[in-house]
Fold this protein.
Amino acid sequence: MQQTSSPRKDLLGIEHLPREVIDHLLDRSDHYYELLLSEHPIPQNDLLAGRTVANLFFENSTRTRFSFELAEQRLGGQHISFTSQGTSVSKGESLLDTVKVLEAMKLDAIVVRHSSYGVPGFIAKHVADHVHVINAGDGAHEHPTQALLDAATMRMIMGTLEKKRVAIIGDIRHSRVARSNIWLLQKYGCDITLIGPDTLMARHAAEVFGVKVQREMGNIVHEVDMIIALRVQLERQASALFPTLEEFTSMYGLTAARLAGSKAHLLHPGPVNIGVELDFDAVYGEHSVILRQVKRGVAVRMAVLEWVFS
Amino acid sequence: MQQTSSPRKDLLGIEHLPREVIDHLLDRSDHYYELLLSEHPIPQNDLLAGRTVANLFFENSTRTRFSFELAEQRLGGQHISFTSQGTSVSKGESLLDTVKVLEAMKLDAIVVRHSSYGVPGFIAKHVADHVHVINAGDGAHEHPTQALLDAATMRMIMGTLEKKRVAIIGDIRHSRVARSNIWLLQKYGCDITLIGPDTLMARHAAEVFGVKVQREMGNIVHEVDMIIALRVQLERQASALFPTLEEFTSMYGLTAARLAGSKAHLLHPGPVNIGVELDFDAVYGEHSVILRQVKRGVAVRMAVLEWVFS
Amino acid sequence: MQQTSSPRKDLLGIEHLPREVIDHLLDRSDHYYELLLSEHPIPQNDLLAGRTVANLFFENSTRTRFSFELAEQRLGGQHISFTSQGTSVSKGESLLDTVKVLEAMKLDAIVVRHSSYGVPGFIAKHVADHVHVINAGDGAHEHPTQALLDAATMRMIMGTLEKKRVAIIGDIRHSRVARSNIWLLQKYGCDITLIGPDTLMARHAAEVFGVKVQREMGNIVHEVDMIIALRVQLERQASALFPTLEEFTSMYGLTAARLAGSKAHLLHPGPVNIGVELDFDAVYGEHSVILRQVKRGVAVRMAVLEWVFS
């Protein structure tokens, strides 16, 4: 988060990232998006020639790992990847140990996803100056590349992000996607409403984030420009954060019928639990920009890698 | 399987693949086989330059994954790989979700192995036109690259596949290798006999496939040109499809002694359970072409990748 | 270990490796170390162009796998990697099967780590002449690249390895690092003392290795030039090889205080159990060369790959 205190560029989060940097990343992501849309093979690019990136996924995510690996390859770089298979290994000193080992191997960047808040920041603080750190999701804190791809998708469709009205619906409390999106959209003066049951709402959200908070959907789908639906983490249902999935779906689930007549664009970070937070017709319907979000995934990561190394 | 209804080339199976295509793939596999036999490093090839292939192994197979990854690298392409470690993830909508994500990442081909019949066909039906699909084994349905490498091996040794006599022995019911081989060899007028206990025989095999079926080995090893021994899936033994391994081996196991005097060439898709379907001396003996089959693995996958992209 | 009986070069262990080869590997590792220390991207090197290396980690080690994969990439080679996730697969015939399959795929080298003694030698004996074999650790036998990187680190710091005094402390019995280091350092006339409790000492160590053995630390840290602290394998504690970790640490654990006034350099193969065999201040203190060891990891593997292919 100390982008300004060090000559090295990291992407640790959106909260402290200047708006000019975000504008630049969205512009460059548009550039790479056009290349990826073309029918032709991707032109060879050697921005990362001789560079090696380590992808450390202490929390498994094939989708995000693939998009980083593709971005690294398409910029001419090399990569090594580590995926933790459920077993938890690295905390405290041993995480420091990992950082020192990677640094010593002359790696140029570390992409890290971890279930604990602050791990990318910890790595950035302790790693040598030549190793860039990119946060691929840390606990319920930040997921900056997801927020960037959401913003890039919406900016291209709507022309601007300025002063848009946005609803974020579902499990706000545990969502790093929600936090990164709030911080990004507020830099563009967006008016944000968080919607979900008390048990899934971030504590003191209205005061902490300066947003509106409501428990009921009410008329929200007809009042906003963008709806960000969040993934219900089914594995947490055991801890009874809401009584039944059916009740959650009846209150907060979005269906094509519920969206009828709305002008809002529907986003979701994926993978969708179809039939829970969204139904099939909502995912593939006229409001949905979910597939466009996915198309943005590789382009945004190429833009981020280009930026940290520039 | 709709190779003819789309401009895009996929390899979903052998059943509906025209014989001309098979001839072509065998020819090209001979070409790559010669290159791989040479002592020299493999000449750099850029047929797949700028292309990326995703290898999705929902069912683990280090051997097959390695041969695809090597083929992709040796044609100058890039790849990303996913291996499921026992945990089952993708069914129904979520498999569709995976397909859409990969397509959106501008992947050029998907190589897929899955324990369920029809997954490659499902992907081919739903994926965008620019993404080629290659079946690396689906349930008990097809394993087309295995049948192609078996055929390439035998064609080189015998000069032709035309009207050869073939025995396929063992667990026919659960074998995708058996099905792909039957369909391939019948396109060359081969005379095929399936041999195994009732519990391991495909239902109505004689009618469905137009082959001979017998329960006892009889004199078969002296009557055929090729014997394809199948792998006994030891993990299925629990469900008691035959009384004991010893009884299976005594009835259907091939030993060097049993093969003595036969003119047949012995194939096996690997890995062999030595001491069960084959003994050590049969695997490494004069009838065996098993190591030649393995040598074919990379060459055939190079030929298939070349063809789908041509 | 038959480096002399075959035209092919393997690195199976240190015990039978001539000192001239070790000198050469240390020299070349110094060369690559300088390149890796530089701020510039690593110059493209094509020593392994058209070559493919298989990294077979039957025993998991992200750190060692990464350093080999980086070495292979930085020499312009391609690689495929297999990591066993706890499940044991390959013994006897099936290991032979794996070897034959890899050979048939025209792989040029096999890097192998295995929990059983002798697996690299078994592979070397059975694989075709064009496939180089590199031991990345076999059971409690040898870990030659670790000993080489320890030696390279110490030679650069001290100018020479000749006739140095060395203490190796901790779980000698189960340590391949200890064995490879003993054999290497004895080729330079080093005077070696092994220190640890009886339950963790190699049997008949004094006779077998021609070293000194002692149960107590005594004044050793003030008598030697190098201390190699070994990792306590915490998972073995269950079998009660020593009463409690605290007792081990109080007897053999190295702290900054205990090292005060010593002229010895402190090495550890990593990852360190901080608070067990070493405390934090020892790891990051003035005696420690542990991070320099890690920096050597990739350079030594580049030197080894260069040598086997030369």
